[in-house]
From TrEMBL:
Protein name, UniProt field: Protein SERAC1
Cross-referenced InterPro entries: AB_hydrolase_fold (IPR029058), ARM-like (IPR011989), ARM-type_fold (IPR016024), SERAC1 (IPR052374)
The organism's taxonomic lineage, starting at the top: Eukaryota, Metazoa, Chordata, Craniata, Vertebrata
Gene name of the encoded protein: SERAC1
Origin species: Equus asinus (Donkey)
Transmembrane regions: none
Primary role: Facilitates the transport of serine from the cytosol to the mitochondria by interacting with and stabilizing Sideroflexin-1 (SFXN1), a mitochondrial serine transporter, playing a fundamental role in the one-carbon cycle responsible for the synthesis of nucleotides needed for mitochondrial DNA replication. Plays an important role in the phosphatidylglycerol (PG) remodeling that is essential for both mitochondrial function and intracellular cholesterol trafficking.
Length: 625
């Protein structure tokens, strides 16, 4: 701009100046303009050239760095299944830096046909903790489902091995997960179902959050389905409806053909959405994992389960400090893991130890069977644990406090044991039965549990049964039934001993009390079978006593000496000393009530230490081999 202004001024000066008598005046001014303009143009050109060269130098990229970053960001994997990759190694031509070789070599090793090499590769991956995020991401993107499941079942695995589940479709304003659950249930076969599946399905399809809200006004809802809701009136109505739907789906998922329908109708994605929505409701999440665990019993559904992202969610749940959540996830992953697990764990059968893959050889089994109103986890908690803390934190000293002593104390003292806990539904009264049509006798339950336990490999190793209350009667009936079936001979031959915690071998006062006030309690079939004059109970006792003597089973009996409060008003000595006497084995009275007879106060308490001593002595030869 200054150059242009100067030229204009010079031109005006030339145009307005008077004619000079000398002819060279004009050319003198022109030369001045040319000199000044030329110097400016030359200097500007040099300056611009310098700036362009400097800028180019600063923007020069290292192409090697770019290529390395590309390799970190994009993993190209063939989509052909492993079964079709004959004579082709997808990792043989990968060009990577020396420090990246370990990742790709482990990936290559994890896909070999050699099972031992595969397992070693997965173990090395899980024990590696010095990798960068992108290296974990390489494994997550490039590993096969078999390796992914193995990592989920490895205790030391970093959660960065697992990709987030695929994004679910966005929700619309009129979306109702309650309605989606109803549609899924309605799409399942409704014929050839047992009474309980029909009951739960009809209950879920007929009730809505609005009708439940209307019923919350009163406890007694005669003429409707009010009574089953009595225990859930304090909950959010929509969550209650979802619980009914999940209860029905659990029953349906026990049938293989129904599992196929659940997967085909988008059930895996729907359950995942519900799982994420109810992060603060462990009960709903546990029921969802029960369904996934049941579906995982069908090997042809493993691929859809993995693709839908469930392995990532189960791997995270496995690391939960809450024993119930971790155990439900462990069951589902064990059913998915066909590389190291031969057994199949059906609904209600939970492995407390080992829940992860382990190099520790398992030499024997210990089975825990709860009694009336019990459960696979709460029955075996530490005494008064609920007052000491609402949850079991990882930082707590498990030697002082545990919510499941078989999983923590016994697993630590006897790591060579596989510890299984069984869960089944029971009730004191038909009013409180989860399924009013369900009338399961001890004989029926024993056959059902025996079938599930055999599928879990019970009988393949030496075993000890640990039972509480009515659970002991189930153990006796299961062993008698197994003795009649040739395919169950291994269960009898490998049974080494039985621990009975206050088992009413000769009947219980609870049954007498319930019969006397039957119009108030409407005692359930299980309670009726515990009466002292029950012919079935007497026959069971006589047959088992003779059978146990013949097989030389080792037996340890505990019995309570204190009464138990049933509700807030009834005080009852549930199992007296004379009823807990099987007729063989030691009988040890303990100054606790019926509920606490199987709940040691602490690890050095007599109840636990005597039980541990019995297990060690009975399995001494088996654990040494």
């Amino acid at each position: 701009m200054s150059l242009a202004a100067y030229c204009v001024i010079c031109c005006r000066r030339i145009g307005t100046s008077t004619p000079s008598p000398k002819s060279n005046t004009y050319w003198r001014d022109v030369r001045k303009i040319i000199k000044f303009t030329g110097s400016l143009i030359l200097g500007g050109s040099l300056f611009l050239t310098y700036e362009v060269l400097a800028l180019k130098k600063s923007l020069t990229l290292d192409t090697q760095v770019v290529e390395r970053e590309k390799m970190k960001s994009y993993i190209y994997v063939h989509t052909v299944s492993l079964d079709k990759r004959e004579n082709h190694d997808p990792f043989s031509t990968v060009d990577v830096e020396d420090h990246e070789c370990a990742v790709w070599l482990l990936l290559r090793k994890s896909k070999l046909d050699d099972r031992t090499a595969r397992l070693q590769a997965v173990q090395e991956m899980s024990e590696t903790h010095h990798w960068h995020d992108y290296q974990y991401r390489i494994i997550a993107q490039a590993c096969d489902p078999r390796t992914l499941i193995g990592l989920a079942r490895s205790k030391e695995s970093d959660l960065r091995f697992f990709l987030p589940p695929p994004r679910l479709p966005s929700l619309t304003e009129d979306y109702s997960i309650e309605e989606e659950l109803r549609q899924l249930l309605a799409s399942l076969p409704q014929t050839e179902l047992d009474e309980c599946i029909q009951y739960f399905t009809s209950l879920a399809l007929s009730e809505s959050s609005q009708s439940l809200a209307a019923q919350k006004g009163g406890l007694w809802c005669f003429g409707g389905n009010g009574l089953p809701y009595a225990e859930s009136f304090g909950e959010v109505p929509s969550a209650t409806v979802e619980m009914f739907c999940l209860e029905a789906l659990i029953k349906h998922s026990e049938m293989p053909t129904h599992c196929d329908q659940i997967e085909a109708n988008g059930g895996l994605q729907l359950l995942q959405r519900l799982y994420r929505l109810h992060k603060d409701c462990p009960k709903i999440q546990r029921n969802i994992m029960r369904i996934i665990g049941n579906m995982a019993l069908n090997e042809h559904l493993h691929s859809p389960i993995v693709r839908s992202g469930w392995v990532s969610l189960l791997a995270e749940a496995m690391k939960s400090p809450h024993i119930m959540e971790a155990s439900h996830a462990a069951r589902s992953l064990a059913n998915l893991d066909r590389d190291t697990v031969r057994e199949k764990y059906q609904d209600g059968v939970y492995v407390l130890h080992p829940q992860y893959r382990t190099s520790q050889p398992i030499k024997a089994d210990v089975l825990f069977i709860h009694g009336l109103m019990g459960a696979a986890f709460k029955t075996w908690r530490q005494q008064d644990a609920e007052q000491q803390g609402p949850t079991d934190q990882a930082s707590e000293d498990e030697a002082r406090h545990t919510t499941c002593w078989p999983k923590t104390w016994l697993a630590r003292d006897c790591p060579a044991l596989r510890i299984i806990s069984v869960e089944y539904d029971t009730s004191l009264s038909d009013w409180r039965a989860r399924c009013p049509m369900e009338r399961k006798s001890i004989a029926f339950r024993s056959n059902e549990l025996l079938r599930k336990l055999r599928a879990a490999g019970v009988g393949d190793r030496p075993l000890i049964w640990v039972s509480h209350s009515m659970g002991g009667l189930l153990v006796k009936k299961m062993l008698l039934e197994a003795s009649k079936k040739p395919e169950m001979n291994t269960v009898i031959n490998n049974t080494r001993g039985i621990v009975f915690y206050s088992v009413p071998h000769h009947g219980s006062h609870l049954a007498e009390y319930s019969v006397n006030i039957r119009y108030l309690l409407f005692p359930s079939l299980e309670v009726k079978e515990l009466s002292k004059d029950s012919p079935a109970l007497k026959t069971l006792q006589d047959d088992f006593l003779e059978f146990a003597k013949d097989k030389n089973f080792q037996v340890l009996n505990f019995v309570e000496t204190l009464p138990t409060y049933i509700g807030s008003m009834i005080k009852l000595h549930v199992v007296p000393v004379e009823s807990a006497d099987l007729g063989i084995g030691d009988l040890i009275p303990v100054d606790v009530n019926h509920l606490n007879i199987c709940k040691p106060k602490q690890k050095d308490a007599f109840l636990y230490q005597r039980t541990l001593q019995f297990i060690r002595e009975t399995l001494a030869k088996d654990l040494e081999n």
